């Protein structure tokens, strides 16, 4: 009786997956001309297939990052293979942002991406954007995004954004921070935290943190060779490794331990590279 119940549960799960896959395939573009995604050996390194899997996960659960493992791109390093360069050019031509291209291909150097696109003649000049396009990006700026954030999201040069907002004569009201926020941000800066981490913890924009630190003549202490002091104790690292072994995803561990998902993924790669699976020597947290 119990075995039949188990079979029924698996059948229901398979039916849900099949329905989610069919729904995701309806609006999934096939630039790689693949007629059977997931059945070819080279699908493993295909960014389009990774995106398809993510879409299926989104159909199956409202918060897929909490229940499914994170799909990481293949770990690649320069010099990049020609096929990876071609994938990046295709993705950019399909309208993918620089940030999304990096997530799907594993090419982490944004300057490299920009250089490839420029050499291929695909990188548009400022004069090639219509007034409607310019207005859309100016609106993003007015709504609170910085020029660099807009570049990360869309691939449009931050310099273009600055020039268009200047020409349009638009500006944003200066964000005011409480004395407590400022003190906390500067204290974290002196401790060695990255400005993006400080922004997440305090709400003070990363650029504002840099400006405040410069005005206050603050410098980061260098107590350790190679960079900042360690921010996570060995106990936290051990707990993180145990949770990974239990099948928890980096976003889930972030919720449980307060360690960023990116840091968890970096530790995971370090642990996987060790022969015996033991935690590597403590590295400064970046």
Helical stretch count? 15
- Note poorly predicted spans: 222-229, 275-286
How much is the average pLDDT?
77
Structural category is: mainly alpha
Q: How far from one another are the termini?
A: 53 Å
Characterize the structure shown.
The chain is an all-alpha fold and 286 residues long. Mean pLDDT is 77; it is low at 222-229 and 275-286. It contains 15 helices and no strands. Among the domains are: 82-119; 126-168, no CATH class; 176-231; 234-272.
Fold blueprint:
Blueprint: H1 2-26, H2 47-60, H3 64-67, H4 82-93, H5 98-105, H6 110-119, H7 131-142, H8 147-154, H9 158-168, H10 179-191, H11 195-202, H12 206-215, H13 234-245, H14 250-257, H15 261-273
What's the short version?
It contains 15 helices and no strands.
Notable characteristics:
286 residues; 15 helices; mainly alpha
């Amino acid at each position: 009786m119990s075995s039949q119940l188990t079979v029924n549960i698996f059948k229901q799960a398979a039916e849900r997956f099949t329905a989610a896959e069919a729904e995701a395939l309806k609006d999934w573009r096939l630039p790689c001309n693949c007629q059977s995604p997931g059945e070819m050996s080279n699908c493993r390194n295909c960014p389009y297939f990774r995106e398809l899997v993510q879409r299926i996960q989104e159909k199956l659960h409202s918060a897929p990052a909490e229940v499914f493992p994170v799909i990481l791109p293949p770990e690649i390093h320069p010099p990049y293979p020609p096929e990876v360069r071609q994938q990046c050019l295709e993705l950019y031509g399909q309208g993918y942002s620089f940030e999304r291209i990096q997530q799907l291909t594993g090419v982490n150097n944004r300057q490299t991406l920009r250089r490839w696109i420029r050499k291929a003649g695909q990188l548009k000049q400022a004069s090639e954007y219509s007034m409607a396009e310019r207005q859309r990006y100016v609106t993003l700026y007015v709504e609170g995004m910085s020029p660099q954030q807009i570049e990360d999201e869309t691939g449009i040069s931050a310099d273009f954004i600055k020039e268009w907002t200047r020409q349009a004569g638009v500006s944003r009201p200066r964000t005011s921070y409480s004395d407590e926020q400022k003190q906390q941000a500067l204290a974290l800066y002196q401790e060695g935290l990255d400005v993006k981490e400080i922004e997440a913890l305090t709400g003070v924009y990363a650029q504002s943190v840099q400006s405040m630190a410069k005005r206050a003549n603050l410098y980061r202490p260098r107590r350790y060779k190679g960079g900042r002091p360690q921010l996570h104790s060995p106990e936290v690292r051990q707990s993180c490794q145990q949770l990974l072994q239990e099948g928890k995803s980096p976003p889930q561990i972030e919720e449980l331990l307060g360690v960023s998902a990116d840091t968890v993924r970096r530790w995971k790669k370090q642990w996987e590279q060790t022969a015996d699976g033991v935690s590597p020597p403590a590295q400064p947290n970046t």
